Request: fold
Amino acid sequence: MRRITAAETWPLRQSVLRPGRPLAAAQFPGDDLSSTNHFSAYQNDELVGIASLFLAEMPEHPGVTAWQLRGMATAPEVRGAGFGRALVAACVAFAFASGKKLIWCNARLSALGFYRKLGWEILGEEFDVPDVGPHFHMWRRLP
Reply:
């Protein structure tokens, strides 16, 4: 795992998370803040996985600054090979080292099992992200 720039995440974010939409749809508010961190996974020098951490309050815990995992994506051809697990582990380790107590994400329905296997829990009811689809808040308390 290594850190990369926001712009380096955009092509994979677009192809996996916003297919058929313009590259601008893969650019998130806060991508370029100094507090935001972007992580990457490579296979044979090819970018195959990305994840970003943003400082953000978790909606169910107002007033508590936590890390939000966003833009988590792996190339379809490497799914199941451990790159996603490694990215999440790197994000959790970074979040823990920062001293924050929580990490959370907006998880697509198709990703619920993935996060559950990694110790994350669903919090609250299903909600819709416009132009993306149904999601759940998921979270994990940091040790």
Notes: The mean pLDDT is 94.
